[in-house]
Design brief:
Layout lengths: L3 H10 L5 H8 L3 H10 L4 H11 L3 H8 L4
């Protein structure tokens, strides 16, 4: 499960990046990214791309992209 709250914190820290901007940077449609955020699930390859764009430290990636609750 993806911790969308933490993910949105990183989006805010990166110049208030919108879903549309993030989707463009990872090569996905805004609808696809929104669906992933709503479902709190996404492909691992996309999680890695998002982490790179948002400069999420490797130590935080597990807590964000593989949250247990």
């Amino acid at each position: 499960m993806v911790n969308t709250t933490e993910l949105r914190v990183y989006m805010t820290l990166r110049d208030n990046m919108t879903v549309k901007e993030l989707a463009r940077k990872i090569g996905k449609s805004p609808a696809t990214l929104s669906r992933w955020l709503d479902n709190k699930d996404m492909p691992v390859s996309s999680a890695e791309a998002i982490a790179n764009v948002l400069h999420i430290p490797e130590a935080k990636m597990t807590k964000i992209f593989f949250a247990t609750v």
